C-alpha cells in the first residue's frame, strides 16, 4: 500500500554526488520509479509522479535556488523594482497538426497561459525551432504562420529566437521551445502554496478535449463526432477574474496529467486536502464516451485552454460570474473545495455516494500531447 506522500507526489529523497559525479540513489525513499529506470522512459515526461521525481531528485539539486521552490507554471521574480513572471516550455506534440490547432499556436498559447497562471499579462516571447532534415518547408511555414496568428490574438510579440537542424530521423519533423516574460500586477500573489481550507475550487470549462483530440488523429480513431482541442490563450480570462479581486489564491492550467495532476500538485504544495464532487466536473459527452471506450479517466486527460482556480469563499460567486461572462469561461463550474482534512490528498465524492482517492498519475495516459 502506498503511503500518503506517495499518493500526493510529495516523495522524499536526497541526491548526492559520488566522486564520479553520478547520482547516488541509495538515499531515496521507496517506491521511486527513477531507481527502477536507469534510463529515461516516456513516463518521465508525462507531468505525473515520475516527472516530479525527475525534477526533485536530478534537476532540482543541480539548479538549487530559492526562486525555484514554488515550482509553479512560471517563476515570479523581482527585477529593477518590477515583478516579472518568466516561463519556458518545449513542445514535441505528435502529430504536428490536429483538430483545433497545431504545434505553432500550442507553443504560443502554452507559454502565455503559464504566465497568466501567475497573474501576468504576457509581453514578449522567444521561439527556438529544432527542424528535422527533410521536413517540408510548407509545414514549417504553416507552423510559423500559426505562431504569428496566435501571438497577435494573445497580444504578445515574438521578439527573439533560434533555429537548429538535426539529421533526418532525429527530430520528428520539428520541435519548438518558447519562453515568455510578463508583468505581475501589484497586489497579485498566485502560488500553489496559498491554497487554504475553505477555498472554493473552480474549473473554467469542459475538460479532456485536447488529449482526446490528439488521440483521435494519432491513432485514427473515430467517435462519431470530431473532437477539437481546446487550445486557447487564457490571459483575458485571468484578467477578468483579477478584476473582481486580486486576492485569488491559486491558478493552474491542467495540461499534462490533466485536472488530477494539477489538483494533486496544489494539495501537496499547500499541504491541504481537496475534495471534489465528481458529477460537478464538466466532462463533455464526446470525451466521456471516448474515455469509456478506451478505458481512460477524463480527470487525467490533458487540456490546453482550461484553468483551475482556488478562490477565497467570499469572492467565489463573483469570480464565477465573471468567468461565465467571458467566452473562455462560459462553462465554468464549482467542482469542490479545499479542506483541512486529509492534507496533501485529493478525494472525489462519486455519484454513488462513495469516495475515492484521486492519485497523482505515475506518467501520462497519452504521451506527446504538448
UniProtKB/TrEMBL annotation:
Entry protein name: Hydrogenase expression/formation protein HypE
Cross-referenced SUPFAM superfamilies: PurM C-terminal domain-like (SSF56042), PurM N-terminal domain-like (SSF55326)
PurM-like C-terminal domain ranges (all copies): 196-342
Family: Belongs to the HypE family.
Domain PurM-like N-terminal: start-end pairs: 73-184
Matches recorded under NCBIfam families: hypE
Top-level taxon: Bacteria
InterPro entries: HypE, PurM-like_C_dom, PurM-like_C_sf, PurM-like_N, PurM-like_N_sf
A Pfam family the protein falls into: AIRS
Organism: Kitasatospora nipponensis
Amino acid at each position: 500500500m502506498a503511503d500518503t506522500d506517495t499518493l500526493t507526489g510529495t516523495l522524499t529523497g536526497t541526491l548526492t554526488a559520488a566522486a564520479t559525479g553520478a547520482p547516488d540513489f541509495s538515499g531515496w525513499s521507496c517506491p521511486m520509479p527513477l531507481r527502477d529506470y536507469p534510463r529515461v522512459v516516456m513516463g518521465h515526461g508525462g507531468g505525473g509522479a515520475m516527472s516530479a521525481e525527475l525534477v526533485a531528485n536530478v534537476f532540482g539539486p543541480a539548479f538549487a535556488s530559492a526562486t525555484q521552490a514554488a515550482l509553479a507554471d512560471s517563476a515570479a521574480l523581482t527585477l529593477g523594482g518590477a515583478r516579472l513572471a518568466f516561463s519556458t516550455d518545449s513542445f514535441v506534440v505528435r502529430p504536428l497538426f490536429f483538430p483545433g490547432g497545431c504545434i505553432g499556436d500550442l507553443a504560443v498559447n502554452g507559454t502565455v497561459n503559464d504566465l497568466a497562471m501567475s497573474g501576468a499579462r504576457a509581453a514578449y516571447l522567444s521561439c527556438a525551432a529544432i527542424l528535422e532534415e527533410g521536413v517540408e518547408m510548407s509545414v514549417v511555414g504553416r507552423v510559423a504562420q500559426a505562431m504569428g496568428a496566435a501571438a497577435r490574438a494573445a497580444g504578445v510579440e515574438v521578439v527573439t529566437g533560434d533555429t537548429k537542424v538535426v539529421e533526418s530521423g532525429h527530430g520528428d519533423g520539428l520541435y519548438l521551445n518558447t519562453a515568455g516574460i510578463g508583468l505581475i500586477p501589484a497586489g497579485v500573489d498566485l502560488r500553489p502554496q496559498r491554497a487554504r481550507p475553505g477555498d472554493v475550487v473552480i474549473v473554467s470549462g469542459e475538460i479532456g478535449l485536447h488529449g482526446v483530440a490528439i488521440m483521435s488523429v494519432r491513432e485514427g480513431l473515430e467517435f462519431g463526432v470530431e473532437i477539437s482541442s481546446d487550445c486557447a490563450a487564457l490571459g483575458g480570462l485571468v484578467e477578468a477574474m483579477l478584476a473582481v479581486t486580486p486576492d485569488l489564491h491559486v491558478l493552474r492550467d491542467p495540461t499534462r496529467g490533466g485536472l488530477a495532476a494539477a489538483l494533486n500538485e496544489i494539495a501537496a504544495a499547500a499541504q491541504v486536502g481537496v475534495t471534489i464532487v465528481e458529477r460537478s466536473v464538466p466532462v463533455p459527452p464526446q470525451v466521456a464516451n471516448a474515455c469509456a471506450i478506451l478505458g481512460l479517466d477524463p480527470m487525467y486527460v490533458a487540456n490546453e485552454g482550461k484553468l483551475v482556480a482556488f478562490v477565497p469563499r467570499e469572492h467565489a460567486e463573483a469570480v464565477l460570474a465573471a468567468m461565465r461572462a467571458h467566452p473562455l469561461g462560459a462553462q465554468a463550474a464549482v467542482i469542490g473545495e479545499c479542506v483541512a482534512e486529509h492534507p496533501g490528498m485529493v478525494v472525489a465524492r462519486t455519484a454513488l455516494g462513495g469516495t475515492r482517492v484521486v492519485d497523482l498519475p505515475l506518467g501520462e495516459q497519452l504521451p506527446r500531447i504538448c
